[in-house]
Amino acid sequence: MSQATMGLRELKKQQTRQAISDHATRLFLERGFDDVTIAEVAAAAQVAKMTVTNYFPRKEDLALDLHDQFVEGLARTVAEREPGESALAALRRAYLAAVARHDPVIGFSGADFARMVTSSQALLARLREFHEQREEALALVLAEESGTDTHDVRARTAAAQLGGAHRVLFNETLRRTLRGERDQEIAAALTAAVGTAFDLLEPALGDYAVRAAAPA
């Protein structure tokens, strides 16, 4: 099979996945997450029900379709931090950049979407799983970067603190969104909140997991 054929096939898969997600989101926003079935999503997207479940094994992930970016984001930021930069500094920098671009991964979702999520216990439970998985991924990277084993208490405590700060900031974004604030207002408030949250962690984690400077 040629690379061109493989490329077209992957593109088709991406387009199908996106179409399913778009139709699902529209239905969820119109009727509420809990009142829409997988079969109805499949009918709207004009695909088989099995096709929907192949792309989205869990119904919740039709609505929360940024799972990989959410779960892997903190770990990737730490793994790719600059020489001389601590894990804390890298995550602060990345979060402020996400705030500036109103990134949906950190909660810039719009009021309708925020209401849809918070009105469903299933979606709230899935979000909690996302946060837990993200913390676990971060702990593994911190242990690797600091040369310790995966059960290292310091790495896991640092991941819990850093993940906790991100969870607080995510919930603050959601709260302000539900209150009807515009993205620009939320971003301004979050910029200050990021400073507060990360400054509190600075005494404990400011010199933790600092990447060694590149050789001269």
From TrEMBL:
Sorted alphabetically, the keyword list is: DNA-binding, Transcription, Transcription regulation
Q: Where is the HTH tetR-type domain?
A: 14-74
Pfam families, alphabetically?
TetR_N
Could you tell me which SUPFAM superfamilies the record lists for this protein? Homeodomain-like
Superkingdom to which the source organism belongs: Bacteria
Annotation: DNA-binding region:
37-56
UniProt keyword Transcription regulation present: yes
In terms of PROSITE patterns, this protein maps to:
HTH_TETR_2
Q: Which PANTHER family match?
A: HTH-TYPE TRANSCRIPTIONAL REGULATOR BETI, HTH-TYPE TRANSCRIPTIONAL REGULATOR RUTR
Entry protein name? TetR/AcrR family transcriptional regulator
